[in-house]
Amino acid sequence: MLHSSSSKGQTEPLAALVAVIVLGLAIVLYGGFVTDVLTDRTDRTSDDVAIDLIWDDISHDGVYSSDRGTDLSDIEMASLPQGQNVYVEVTIIDDDGHERVVDDLHFDSDGTRASPQEGPPEDGSEIETQVSERPIPVETDVAGDVRGGTLHVEVWSP
């Protein structure tokens, strides 16, 4: 025979409060740990981020055209990786099938234009560079003539 009791399935209020607080702290600590670990992991490098931001700065209606008043000098300092040198180059393939540089610009690690203008470090140098390229449409000197081009960005530490 079962005895009925008014305290069946109950616990002390203080014990329940402590259990809820411990559970809440555990969730907060776990969330903080996971957030800290996951923010350190990314597949995008500084050159990948820079090429997207630079394209946003230099494109006009989705096309690069120095004749429309937008060129590499329009790259904003905020688009460049902080504390790193950046070399930006726009090229096209001309009628002869040769690659031709349309525009290029070198930025020092403080975000200002390098003086004198130099290209990226030479191949075989001990300086390690990160390189990103993306195809872009480039309007040539002939109005309305748009060709396939390449936006080339190299990033390296000084």
Secondary structure layout plus pairing:
Elements: H1 13-39, H2 46-58, E1 59-60, E2 63-64, E3 85-93, E4 99-107, E5 130-139, E6 146-156
Antiparallel strand pairs: 1-2, 3-4, 3-6, 5-6
InterPro entries: DUF7285 (IPR055709)
Region (Disordered): 106-142
Transmembrane segments: 14-34
SSE pattern, N- to C-terminal: HHEEEEEE
Largest sheet: 4 strands, antiparallel
- State the low-pLDDT regions, or none: none
Strand order in the largest sheet: 4-3-6-5
Please tell me about this protein's structure:
- With 158 residues, the chain is of the alpha+beta class.
- It has 2 domains: 33 residues; 111 residues.
- It has 2 helices and 6 strands; from the N terminus they run H-H-E-E-E-E-E-E.
- The strands form 2 sheets. The protein has a 4-stranded antiparallel β-sheet. A two-stranded antiparallel sheet has the order 1-2.
- Strand 5 and strand 6 form a beta hairpin.
- The mean pLDDT is 82.
- InterPro entries: DUF7285.
- Pfam families: DUF7285 (PF23956).
- Keywords: Membrane, Transmembrane, Transmembrane helix.
